[in-house]
Recover the amino acids of this structure.
């Protein structure tokens, strides 16, 4: 049953893989610090560096802060803020501020963890310098993820698929994006994990949809 379902899922995605008109290889590097406040609120802070143009040029510096509260064993609500300094345009450096809210459902079947996250965020570009910066780009996202950790293993395989739907401003409300991720998490110590992931990212319903192949390397440290 699992094999038939997986094969059907891949079959549905085949047309998406064939849509890209432009391609790029990118690398992302991040460090995530995780902790807990008052035994109630979970938090994380994650600075990140991204390279583009076949990983030869600096794309952006980012920093993401996340606060979430577990409501039940299977459900949590969270807030996210991200600041990005983007260098893709040679004529101007863009400052982006993103504000997001999300809910996440989480369940475990023996050693397999499955999660679904629904997020809504609005992003402002150069809000202090540009009048158009006061018009946010609003997106809702839907992500399903899996992680399997067997007893005695230091390495855990993981995978996810996420869809992005732009709903505002009016002239961008048809744009969509798919991101598929597969990778491994290595438990270096009790408090430190190292992640190595490959991400396939596909834009569509755009004039020149971009296909990105991304290698993401990250370190998680639990405070």
């Amino acid at each position: 049953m699992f094999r038939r379902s997986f094969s059907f899922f891949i079959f549905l995605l085949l047309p998406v893989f064939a849509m890209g008109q432009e391609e790029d290889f990118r690398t992302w590097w991040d460090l995530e610090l995780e902790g807990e406040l008052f035994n109630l609120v979970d938090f994380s802070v994650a600075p990140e560096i991204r390279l583009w143009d076949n990983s030869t040029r600096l794309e952006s510096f980012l920093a993401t802060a996340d606060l979430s509260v577990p409501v039940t064993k299977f459900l949590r609500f969270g807030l996210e803020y991200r600041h990005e300094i983007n260098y893709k345009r040679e004529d101007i450096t863009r400052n982006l501020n993103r504000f997001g809210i999300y809910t996440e459902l989480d369940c475990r079947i023996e050693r397999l963890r499955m999660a679904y996250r629904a997020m809504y965020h609005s992003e402002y570009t150069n809000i202090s310098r540009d009048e158009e910066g006061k018009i946010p780009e609003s997106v809702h996202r839907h992500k399903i993820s899996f992680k399997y950790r067997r007893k005695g293993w230091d390495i855990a395989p993981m995978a996810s698929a996420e869809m992005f739907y732009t709903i505002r401003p009016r002239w961008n409300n048809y744009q969509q994006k798919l991101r598929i991720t597969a990778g491994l998490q290595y438990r270096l110590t009790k408090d430190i994990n190292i992640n190595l992931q490959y991400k396939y990212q596909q834009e569509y319903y755009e004039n020149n949809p971009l296909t990105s192949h991304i290698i993401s390397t990250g370190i998680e440290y639990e405070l």
